[in-house]
Specification:
The complex is a heterodimer of chains A (438) and B (312).
Chain A (H helix, E strand, L loop, with lengths): L1 H26 L11 E7 L4 H10 L1 H5 L1 E7 L4 H12 L6 E5 L3 H6 L7 H4 L8 H5 L11 E13 H6 L8 H14 L13 H10 L5 E4 L2 E4 L4 H16 L10 H9 L4 E5 L2 H8 L7 E5 L12 E9 L6 H13 L1 H11 L27 H10 L10 H18 L3 H19 L6
Parallel strand pairs in A: 1-2, 1-3
Antiparallel strand pairs in A: 3-9, 4-7, 4-8, 4-9, 5-6
Helix pairs in contact in A: 2-15, 10-11, 17-18
Chain B lengths: L1 H41 L1 E5 L9 E5 L3 H8 L1 H33 L6 H13 L2 H12 L5 H8 L10 H29 L3 H9 L4 H12 L1 H16 L3 H6 L12 H11 L3 H39 L1
Antiparallel strand pairs in B: 1-2
Classes of the chains: A alpha+beta (438), B mainly alpha (312).
Chain lengths: 438, 312
């Protein structure tokens, strides 16, 4: 009796461990070096409807080359960066990932992204120089293919601007003047709000003013968050908050939605994707908004920043980097793919030729009153200032939220908050062991 | 013969270990091992060389107690702990006070609709913490809150519940709303287990319902009060859901509002799992010290009370 029992136990144990091996095998099926046979790739992305776009590939060019791509839907932005890094520690990152431009240095610094300059170098001409340069991080390597961009623009309620006799500001000085005039005419309304929750917006505004937050010289990083350009931007918004002519509550809250929907806030400094946000945040205001270029720091300038935008990157863990790069290039340059991306995912393509064709030949439904929306947008996109991201954008962004949140609450000095942001960022770099130059 | 006896006795001797094995394996795999790994991580850190781009730029090295000394010197962590202390000073007494009050009221003889009331008070506990925090967050936001609307219509001032001192009340309110029901059930259950003779004797001695509640019921449910207090301390030290959910709604909650939020931020915002592991270990130690320290103190007092009762 004990014998049979023991044997059964052993059999079960063997079965269990076999099952575990089978499971483990499932996880690593991509490891087989089979560039000769059919290739299957996994792609982590948060773009809605990406599975439909990938279907185009799997039925078309992918079928011909024997490359099948599977989409795994993920959370957006920083959450995905963390997930990629965790997967990469186990050497199990997917073949392809979506990554925001500011996340690229973090991913590259963790050796998660492969250099695909050899595979995608020839499509460089399809993108604006400033956009492509973001994927190179100041090296000769190319770590991603640009997918969408978020050039910044000024959105305003056309009807309310007329009602209060306001003019669309073309400089930031006029912007401040407009905020003051509105406060005089309608004290319960605000032109807009300064949101300490949206680090990306502040980064874009600083970028427009000419700031370069992270630069390299030799083997050293230089952090320029507290530079003259950013100080100008911080001082400007801090002044408006202190004066009380704009609101200081965060964006993307139920309160903010209501303020936009009821016309309590009548303008929004945002990016090309704003129509999508306004459609859900302020549904009652359809057709009442208009878009204009971002106000400038001086009249002879014509430059904008970017808020958002992402790229498609190939990981170092991928066993089929060449095939993955081929797909990334197709996804972001092929006419049909970009059209489908615009239709299904609502993205604004980085590829310049796609910015005026197909889905972008007529304005977004929410802006039906502005027929030239996308031709204007394409013109603005061309004026995007170059950006400069570093390996700890996440730290700077968190520091921004905390320091500027407190400053907005206390209506205190924004430039002091900026100094905190600079100090936190430098301290973190040094702590990690990066060489930082003064 | 002899061989079979020896085998049988061996089998019997081994039996307890056999029974223990599953629990031991599970404990080792899912409890001891992860904790051990976290502690191991807390003694490590990453060194970057040069620009930190490309392969081989990052190396994991031994950090000794570096992560711990940094965590102990970190003002963010300290401020977080102080904030949680303030929050706990509101939550624990209010929640347990209400729970005791409700339990006593439900246990009194004159109560009507007891099953319904019990369920109604307990129900918020069944609402997931994140949902509860979101729900209250919307009720706190002045522009969408029906309370602010009503106060505005009545011409009364509307307090900003998401700022300064009121923020603590706002956060504590969510925890009290969600936790009172659970604690009430614990206390109520132990009230029900008090034998009826005790009450009868008290009544014969001429005790009023209030006297019965204060002199008999509360002392007799003291062990459950200790237990609920113990749970509440742990829950307070681990507060995370409520402030994290309210964070995007206001400028007043920063990313390291509570110690656990700081751990989360370090692990997943800054990708520094080593510092996060050290902080988590420290929080676990403090939780252990506080909760078991309290339990020991409570036990000692109980024993003393019992012995004094015996002498009397």
């Amino acid at each position: 009796m004990p014998h049979t029992k023991r044997r059964r136990l052993v059999t079960t144990a063997v079965a269990v461990s076999l099952g575990a091996t089978a499971l483990a095998a499932c996880g690593s099926e991509d490891d087989s070096k089979a560039d000769s046979g059919p290739v299957s790739l996994t792609y982590w992305t948060w773009t809605p409807g990406m599975d439909k776009v990938v279907d185009l590939w799997n039925k078309g060019p992918g079928k011909k080359d024997g490359i099948t791509v599977t989409v795994k839907k993920q959370a957006s932005g920083d959450t995905l960066v963390t997930k990629i890094l965790t997967a990469h520690k186990a050497k199990k990152a997917p073949d392809l990932v979506q990554a925001e431009y500011q996340a690229l240095p973090t991913l590259v610094s963790n050796d998660a992204l492969a250099d695909i300059s050899g595979e995608v170098g020839d499509i460089e001409g399809k993108f604006a120089e400033g956009v492509w340069q973001q994927t190179m991080l100041g090296t000769d390597a190319v770590y991603a293919v640009p997918q969408d961009i978020g050039p910044m623009m000024f959105y305003y309620r056309e009807d309310l601007f007329e009602k209060y006799g306001l003019k669309v500001p073309t400089t930031w000085e006029q912007f401040a003047e407009t905020a003051r005039r509105l406060k005089e005419k309608a004290p319960d309304k605000d032109l807009t709000t300064f949101s300490a929750n949206d680090s990306g917006l502040f980064a874009g505004l600083a970028q427009q003013a000419g700031a370069k937050w992270w630069t390299t010289s030799g083997d050293r990083w230089k952090v320029g968050i507290d530079d003259a350009a950013t100080r100008k931007v911080a001082g400007f918004w801090g002044g408006l908050v202190k004066e009380g002519v704009i609101d200081d509550q965060p964006m993307y809250t139920p309160s903010w939605n209501k303020a936009l929907n009821t016309g309590k806030q009548i303008a929004w400094v945002s990016a090309v994707w704003a129509p999508g946000t306004l459609t859900t945040a302020a549904p009652d205001t359809k057709g009442k908004w208009a878009m204009a270029p971002l106000p400038q720091w001086s009249l002879d300038q014509d430059v904008t920043g970017s808020w958002g935008g992402s790229s498609t990157a190939v990981t170092t863990d991928s066993a089929h980097q060449e095939a993955a790069a081929e797909f990334a290039a197709w996804l972001n340059t092929d006419h049909d793919a970009l059209n489908a991306l615009a239709k299904e995912g609502g993205i604004y393509p980085a590829s310049t030729s796609a910015q005026l064709s197909g889905a972008f030949s007529h304005p977004p439904a929410f802006f039906a009153n502005q027929p030239d929306f996308y031709s204007k947008a394409a013109d603005i996109a061309k004026t995007t200032a170059p950006s400069a991201w570093g390996p700890n954008v996440n730290v700077a962004y968190t520091s921004f939220k905390d320091a500027f949140g407190a400053a907005a609450k206390n209506k205190s000095d924004f430039t002091a908050a900026l100094r905190t942001m600079q100090d936190d960022t430098v301290a973190d770099l040094k702590k990690q062991g990066f060489e930082v130059s003064r | 013969m002899s061989s079979s006896t020896s085998r049988r006795s061996y089998g019997v001797k081994g039996a307890p270990y056999g029974f223990l094995l599953p629990a031991t394996v599970l404990f080792a795999l899912f409890f001891a091992l992860p904790i051990g790994y976290a502690v191991w991580l807390s003694f490590r850190k990453v060194r970057v060389s040069g620009l930190g781009l490309g392969s081989g730029a990052r190396k994991e090295v031994w950090a000794g107690f570096g992560n711990y000394t940094e965590a102990l010197q970190d003002s963010e962590l300290l401020h977080g702990a102080l904030r949680v202390l303030g929050y706990g000073c509101i939550v624990v007494p209010v929640m347990l006070g209400l729970a005791l009050l409700f339990a006593l009221m439900l246990d009194s003889e004159k109560v009507r609709l007891a099953p319904f009331t019990r369920l109604a008070i307990f129900l918020p506990y069944a609402v997931p913490g994140v949902v509860a925090a979101l729900l209250w967050g919307f009720l706190y936001l002045p522009d969408v809150s029906p309370f602010s609307f009503a106060l505005d219509k009545l011409g009364l001032p509307q307090p900003d519940l998401l700022d300064g001192g009121p923020l603590y009340l706002a956060l504590a309110n969510i925890a009290v709303w969600g936790g009172t029901g659970f604690n009430m059930i614990v206390i109520y259950t132990s009230l029900r287990s008090i034998p009826a003779e005790v009450y009868e004797a008290a009544k014969l001695d001429g005790a009023t319902p209030l006297q019965i509640a204060l002199r008999i019921k509360i002392p007799m449910v003291a062990p459950s009060l200790v237990l609920t207090f113990f749970f509440s301390i742990i829950a307070t030290l681990q507060v995370f859901n409520e402030p994290t959910t309210l964070k995007p709604l206001t400028n007043s909650v920063d990313t390291a509002w509570s110690p656990l939020m700081k751990v989360y931020q370090d692990a997943f915002g800054r990708n520094d799992i080593y510092a996060a592991a050290a902080e988590a270990t420290l929080i676990a130690l403090v939780t252990l010290l506080l909760s078991f320290g309290f339990l020991r103190a409570a036990n000692r007092r109980n024993k003393r009370d019992v012995s004094q009762g015996g002498v009397r």
